[in-house]
Structures are given as structure tokens and as C-alpha cells.
Fold this sequence. Notes:
Blueprint: E1 2-9, E2 14-16, H1 17-20, H2 28-35, E3 39-41, H3 48-63, E4 72-76, H4 87-95, E5 101-104, H5 110-123, E6 128-135, H6 146-149, E7 155-162, E8 169-174, E9 181-182, E10 203-204, H7 206-227, E11 235-240, H8 245-255, H9 266-269, H10 275-286, E12 295-302, E13 306-313
Helix pairs in contact: 3-4, 7-8
The structure holds acetyl coenzyme *A (ACO).
Amino acid sequence: MIIAGTGSALPTQVVTNDQLTEFLDTSDEWISTRTGIRTRHILGEEKLENLAAAAARSALEQSGVSPEELDFILCSSVYNDYMAPSMACIVQGLVGATCPAMDLNGACAGFIYALYTAQAYLKAGCRNILIVCAETPTKMVDWTNRATCVLFGDGAGAAVVRAGGEDLSFVLESQSRTEVLVGYNPPSNCPYTPHQPAAQPLFMNGQEVYKFAVSTATRGMQRLLAENGLTCDDIGHFVLHQANLRIVEAVRARMKQDKDKFPTNVERTGNTSSASALILLDELNRAGALQKGERIALSAFGAGLTAGAALLRWQL
Ligand code: ACO
């Protein structure tokens, strides 16, 4: 599988840590030292689907693949404006494609799960697949809960993947642990289900997520390297889910690598869920930071709990 093009789009509205102190008992110092986050982009008047389509158009343009040549659209989206149809179907219409389209939900690890799924579809005969990760976690959290709302931002990333090149290697993990991280749908007013729970915002045990993130990211990437007869020195960049700078730093320390091999953008974007690693990959791609032929290790974790790592060779 070859990544033939990438794209990303962030909302125009930027919110600083200091702005959050206007209504929350928090501080720039607490947020930036615990998470690295200084600003995040938050959807205001814009619509997530338009960000998703903008990211998709950039990826298509770079790949040279036209919308008509797409065989499938896979969208990773935990939360958006629609229960149905899928965000993938909305994006299909916006970019002018006619292929089948569906969403998947691998939570914040969704980009890796989408790559894994895309590789299987490419082996089944598809030639060009558009992956879109479009997320608005800022609409999932309780903005009176300082423990969660300060962590997130909105955004979309996209990649066009094509048949050919080396197969990607994957290590995927899922552990059913809703006691650690869970977000519920709003209650319904169905009269035959009278005892509906009250609306509940996203719940997260931050320290448990932290431990899971550091251990699974390190374990997953080390296993990928071992299975491929490689060491960290063979990897050009480690592109991780951007949830927290301290998580990236802890994984980097365990892998004993220099800072420049573990790029970050969480300082500017906050945690954009499954879009985060793809947005970062696109930023690196467009900055010319990725060398043709270099190996890239991807890693992400999220609710489920889910985790995924992938090893690819950059071909652009
Ligand atoms: N501002 C100020 N104080 C705060 C804030 C805040 N925004 N949030 C919590 N605190 C307080 C707490 O109330 C607590 O106070 P207390 O000691 O008086 O009780 C104190 O700070 C310490 O709280 P902890 O939760 O122990 O802080 P911790 O050091 O664990 O950091 C954090 C919390 C940043 C959430 C960390 O656990 C973390 O990053 N975990 C990983 C979370 C993550 O990555 N989530 C996303 C993955 S899943 C997904 O992407 C959907």
C-alpha cells in the first residue's frame, strides 16, 4: 500500500489556555506543563464535514487521483453532526465521488484501524481509497469539567492510499474497558424505554489512559520493529497520536530516540482524536520533512481501549 497524498484542515477559531481561564478554574501553567497544549482549534460556525472535504480535496490533489477514480471512502469519526448517514457518505458527495463509503470507529486509534481496513480492501481489488479522519471531540466533553475539556481540539486529516509498494505491518489491540474512558449517546425519549439514564459527558480516568498509552505505544512499535528485523535507527519518524506531549516524551524516552524523530503538534492543536496523527503526517509531508523511502512508525491509542501501530515506507 502506498500513501499517495495527504491533506488536513483545522477550524479557523483558535482558543488559548488563557481564554479557558475566563470560565474554568485552570491555568496556562497547569495545562501546558501537564499536557504541552497551548492552543487548540475549535469548530465555531464552520461544519466538520467541510473541514473533512477540504482535507480530502488536498489529499486527492496531491495524489493525482480524481474523485471518480476512488473505489472506496473510509472515514474515521467518533462524533459528528450525523448519527446517519455516515460522514464518509457526506464527504463522498462534497468531493464529487461516486464510490461506496462508510465510517469506522476505532476511537482515537481510528487512523491506524482505517489503514488496516484499507489494506484489506486493496488486497480485495480496490485500487484507490480515500481515508478521512474527521473529529470534533470538543462537542463530546463537558465544558465545566476542567479535567477533560482543556485537552481537546477539532480537525480533519485525509490520505489517499493506493495499491502497490510494500505491505504495511500492523499491531492492533483492543481491550473492553469502559470504566477507563467512555462517551455515551444522548438519552432517547422512546416511551417504551422509560428509565433512560441522564445525559453523561465523556468520562476519562486520565492516569489509566496515560499508563495504557505509554505502555501500548512502546510495546506496539517495538513489536513491529522486531517482527520486521528492524531497530529504532531504521525509522525516520515516529508519528504518534497527539493527545499529550508527556505521553509522546515518555514513549520517546523508552525508545531512546532524539526529539526530532518524534515530531509533535499537540501544542497547537490539542487532541483531535483519530485525526491527530494524520494531521501531523500531513504537516510533515507538506513541510518536506519526510524523505522518500524512509520508514515511518505510526502509533495511536484511544477509547475501547484501542491501540494500533503501523510501519510504512514513505513514497512521496
Ligand atoms: N486545571 C487545573 N487543575 C486541574 C485541571 C485543570 N485543567 N484538571 C485537573 N486538575 C487538578 C485535579 O483536580 C487534581 O487536583 P487535586 O490534586 O486537588 O485533586 C490535580 O489537578 C491532578 O489531577 P490529575 O488528574 O491527577 O492530573 P494528571 O497529572 O494525571 O494529569 C491528564 C491529567 C493531563 C489528563 C493526564 O492524566 C493525561 O494526560 N492522561 C492521558 C489522557 C489522554 O491522553 N486522553 C486522551 C486519550 S483518549 C482520546 O483521545 C479520547
